[in-house]
Design goal:
Rossmann fold, seven-stranded mixed beta sheet, 32% helix, binds S-adenosylmethionine
């Protein structure tokens, strides 16, 4: 079910779990206790979860986790919290974390909206990635899109001062929508200047979602913001 009948909240995903491969099932059974974090109500102690204090990124809607995996192996000095609702993808990600001997990724398999609502302390992250969020192209589905003002109300307080949000999509109309939402959000500063897309960050890994888009001749749009709380007008 993608609508929460109890709260009336419209979800940004539809859970089609599909079958777990035996590798994914094995990884979920054996590695969740090493790298997985259960959804729970009390706020997380991220230093405890990662067993250190290091620059930290939240990677939202990771799919099979390609970006988190590549970033974690290229930047062992940083920590990555990888979140998706999709269990098979979580299983693949856990398997690869173990195979690649990575120790700087933790994984959550739950709705990021609920995680950000209660489980993450403010000013936890230096960066947030939202790469190729589900585009929900039909007009009647636009309300399912992840990035809107209420989502930013949850995400932005979790960023440290000068913390960055990096977004990418191959859907022009979604890119324009996300830019309009983020450009007008108090405290978020568009690194390319309001109304402009950013160049593709050299470090952003190529994933199958981007490849699929470019194979369809879609242009890819990057958006990069940083948080400047001094730019938030004082409430009178
Ligand atoms: C199109 S995939 C992109 C995967 C990846 N970021 C990439 O660039 O390859 C979008 C992912 O977002 C996940 N997703 C959508 N809404 C979510 C939510 N509220 N909480 C967690 N994951 C979500 C979906 O399950 C899906 O795996």
């Amino acid at each position: 079910m993608s609508d929460n009948r109890a709260t009336g909240r419209i979800r940004s995903y539809v859970l089609r779990q599909g079958r777990l491969t035996s590798g994914q099932a094995h990884a979920l059974k054996n590695y969740w206790s090493k790298f997985g974090i259960d959804h729970q109500v009390p706020p997380l102690d991220l230093d405890k979860e990662f067993e250190r204090r290091a620059p930290r990124t939240i990677d939202i809607g990771v799919g099979m986790g390609d970006t988190s995996l590549k970033m974690a192996s290229c930047f062992p000095e940083n920590d990555y919290l990888a979140i998706d609702v999709h269990q098979p993808g979580t299983g693949s990600l856990l398997r690869q974390i173990e195979e690649k001997h990575l120790r700087n990724i933790r994984v959550m398999c739950h709705d990021v909206v609920e995680i950000l609502s209660g489980q993450i302390p403010n000013q936890s992250f230096d960066q947030a990635f939202i790469f190729f969020p589900d585009p929900w192209p039909k007009k009647r589905h636009h309300k399912r899109r992840l990035i809107n003002n209420s989502f930013l109300n949850l995400l932005v307080p979790k960023l440290k001062e000068n913390g960055c949000v990096h977004i990418a999509t191959d859907w022009q109309e979604l890119a324009e929508h996300m830019m309009a939402v983020c450009d007008s959000y108090s405290g978020l500063i568009n690194m390319a200047g309001a109304g402009h897309f950013s160049p593709r960050p050299h470090w952003r890994p190529l994933t199958k979602f981007e490849k699929r888009g470019t194979n369809l001749s879609h242009q890819v749009f990057d958006l990069s913001y940083f948080l400047n709380s001094k730019a938030i007008p004082e409430k009178s």
